[in-house]
Amino acid sequence: MATDAPLPPPRAWLPVIRAVLARPRLWLVAVRQLLVLAPRGWWHRWPPLPLPDPAYLRFRLLTAYGATDHPPEPDDVVAYLRWCRDWRRAGWG
C-alpha cells in the first residue's frame, strides 16, 4: 500500500462527527481513542490536533472498505466506539 494513497477529504468525516455528537455516552470514548491513536508528539506537528496517524487510517479504511479513500461509515465508527467502551468496561482496556 502506498504511503501517499489518498484519504477521504476532511468533509467526509462530518457525518461521523455528527453521529458521535448525537451520542453523549460515547464522547469520552471518542476523545480517549483519539488520544490513544494519535502519534507521539502530535502537539509538535501542524495542525496540533490529536489525529490518528494517516498510515493507520489508510490501513483501517483499506481493510474495512477495500479503498483508502472510501469515506468512513458513521455506523461503523459508532460500533467501534461502543466496542472500545465495552472492552474497557470488561476490564480488558
N-to-C SSE series?
Answer: HHHH
| Structure class | mainly alpha
**DSSP strand count:** 0
Q: Number of helix segments? A: 4
**Are there runs of 5+ residues with pLDDT below 50, and where?**
none
- Rg computed from alpha carbons, rounded to a whole number of angstroms: 14 Å
Terminal CA distance reads 30 Å
Q: Strand-residue fraction? A: under 5%
Count of structural domains: 1
> Could you describe the largest sheet, including whether it forms a barrel?
none
- Mass-distribution shape: globular
Mean pLDDT: 93
Helix content: 40-55%
Molecular structure report:
This protein is mainly alpha-helical. Helix content is 51%, strand content 0%. The chain is built from 4 helices and no strands. It has helices spanning 14-21, 27-37, 54-65, 74-89. The model has no long low-confidence stretch (mean pLDDT 93).
Give a nutshell description of this structure.
The protein has helices at residues 14-21, 27-37, 54-65, 74-89. It has 93 residues and is mainly α.
Blueprint of the fold:
Elements: H1 14-21, H2 27-37, H3 54-65, H4 74-89
Main traits of this protein?
93 residues; mainly alpha
